[in-house]
Amino acid sequence: MNRVQIIHYKGKRIVFLDFSNVQTIEEIIVIANQAKQYIHLQPLLSVFSLTTIEGMHFNNAIRDVFTELAKSNKPYVKAGAIIGVTGMKQILFNGIMKITGRDIKAFNTIDLAREWLASHN
User: Fold this and answer.
1) Which of 53, 33, 42 is nearest to 96 (CA)?
2) pLDDT in tens, 48-83
3) What distance in Å separates the CA atoms of residue 38 and residue 15, rounded to the nearest whole number?
4) Degrees (nearest 5) of the Cα angle 50, 109, 14?
5) What pTM, to 2 d.p., does this model score?
6) Which domains does the chain have, with CATH numbers?
7) What is the DSSP string of 37-75?
8) Do residues 84 and 53 touch, judged by C-beta distance below 8 A?
9) What is the DSSP letter of 116?
10) Taking residues 89-96, what's their average pLDDT?
11) Are 90 and 47 in contact (CB under 8 A)?
12) Does the structure show a pLDDT above 90 at 87?
């Protein structure tokens, strides 16, 4: 299964990053690198991104991978949404947003996240 893919929703082309149920930092790094390779080829401020981290293992090393990913993608992403930010992940996510200056919106469901992304011009 390709964990970085393009989905279409209500006329929006969305880069979907699927980290769901990933349990090792090695797997997370592979997916993050695939995401960067694709996103960094896109025009500046043109990407709508949707990330899921539902069921994903999270620790400080993984936080660092996500911080670097969020920083490096910032110039390319027009709007970003994430699902699966619960419990301790919420605290780490808030820290990543503060460090990177990103404004990625957290949602409880993929449907709410896609609707929010579709509402952007």
Assistant:
1) 53
2) 999 999 999 889 999 999 999 999 999 999 999 999
3) 9
4) 20
5) 0.93
6) 4-104 (3.30.750)
7) HHHTTSPTT-EEEEEE-TT----HHHHHHHHHHHHHHTT
8) yes
9) H
10) 89
11) no
12) no
